[in-house]
Amino acid sequence: MQLTTERLLLREVRQTDWPAVHEFACDVEVTRFTSFGPNTEEQTKSFVEHGLADARAQPRTFFALAITLLGEDRVIGGCSLRLRDDANREGELAYLLHRDYWGRGYIPEAARAFLAFGFEELGLHRIIARCNPLNTASERVMQKLGMQREGLLRESAFMKGCWIDLLLYSILEWEWKERREGA
Fold first, then answer.
1. How far apart are the first and last CA of the chain?
2. Which of 52, 66, 75, 161 has its CA 20 to 30 A from that of 6?
3. What are the tens digits of pLDDT across the range 8-33?
4. Rounded distance between C-alpha atoms, residue 68 and residue 45, angstroms
5. What domain range is 68 assigned to?
6. pTM of the model
């Protein structure tokens, strides 16, 4: 599976990608608000192996793609969509980017491709995303995507030794279609 945008190619992760993935997965600043990291090399290799297994799963419920710049095959980040609830057709969006590429609009661009995939190909009704309230950059991405803030999930995740709050955002299929048609 792959998704293409104006500037990006989102493709399946390859085993040989682990050194490039490790460059950002071991970065304290990049992983500051994630449930993992900073990674050791072994943790990154294990993460890549899990990604390869997820891509082979039938039925597939987790779509994690490497973000590369068009024309370059170097992994600069990742974006994923996890199917959370079949009956209610809900998915969850997540993303991460190498610090050298922050502030260039790559994550909203990659995430829009995943929203289109989720709504058009998978027939989802609702896609959510969550972030630490201190992660204002991630919250801005959700807002740029047209996602609506639903609320604060108090102490809903145990991460890096402590309970943290999470902001919950979502976008519904009809909202996404209206936004896309208006663009």
1. 26
2. 52
3. 999 999 999 999 999 999 999 999 99
4. 19
5. 2-129
6. 0.94
